[in-house]
Amino acid sequence: xxxxxxxxxxxxxxxxxxxxxxxxxxxxxxxxxxxxxxxxxxxxxxxxxxxxxxxxxxxxxxxxxxxxxxxxxxxxxxxxxxxxxxxxxxxxxxxxxxxxxxxxxxxxxxxxxxxxxxxxxxxxxxxxxxxxxxxxxxxxxxxxxxxxxxxxxxxxxxxxxxxxxxxxxxxxxxxxxxxxxxxxxxxxxxxxxxxxxxxxxxxxxxxxxxxxxxxxxxxxxxxxxxxxxxxxxxxxxxxxxxxxxxxxxxxxxxxxxxxxxxxxxxxxxxxxxxxxxxxxxxxxxxxxxxxxxxxxxxxxxxxxxxxxxxxxxxxxxxxxxxxxxxxxxxxxxxxxx
Length: 337
What we know:
The chain has helices at 7-23, 26-34, 41-50, 68-81, 87-101, 106-115, 186-222, 234-263, 268-294, 305-317, 322-336; strands at residues 121-124, 131-132, 139-144, 147-152, 157-161, 170-174, 224-225, 228-229.
């Protein structure tokens, strides 16, 4: 049995990386901090035209009809670029939720608009307590005790929240659940949404860690001390080797979590928690190593590293932090024994 991505999956990921390299360099990510809504609508349209936004949507409404394992590498590329758009929330969580649990009619129409890049739906899960880009969304998918609700933006009150990553505009949403807004699936649909969000955040964290590691390697190759690149010093090599090891141990857990969701594995929720915990830890290790290799300049806004560091800090807590997911894994293991 071949445990690897297919040539088509790798080619799609390469095409997305090429687009993001050209259209989402660090200066574009920086610009999102100062933009009115933190969004890049032109880039969102391009991603929709490529089929990325609707990868998990049915072909009958313009989607690609693909699976989570097809999407997970794309999300890692979004992390590598520091993409500020809500791709993980929309493509990995909102689209399958509307596909599987939405009511015929309104949900189908909205899903088609989302796939086409004409609309976005903000995601608010109870594990986060906030919603990304809610102020610019056309509708909101919100979690309550009885499941997921599709809510009109006119029926909520938004309170902007401060965040370490200025490109991620977060809001607290005040709203009242009702039977009219409740999607099918009940509480299990909400659990599935949280699992999908955890895997999506883990994939982005892997991409972010890859980018921070690449930035660190480039810096220690160019920066000289005592007439030689600091990357030739054994202590620096050890820092980067440890960072690489942590990242390469995390990636298979993230890929496996996406594969488990694709194959309907009964342990998919457990695998999602394992992936999010390990990816969060790996991003932390890589970020610390990269910052140490840069020295004081790594803290400055002039250094690109700080952009990716702050995104990693934000995503480490998104969809549950490492400690919360470890408790979930521990509970599952202890219950099984």
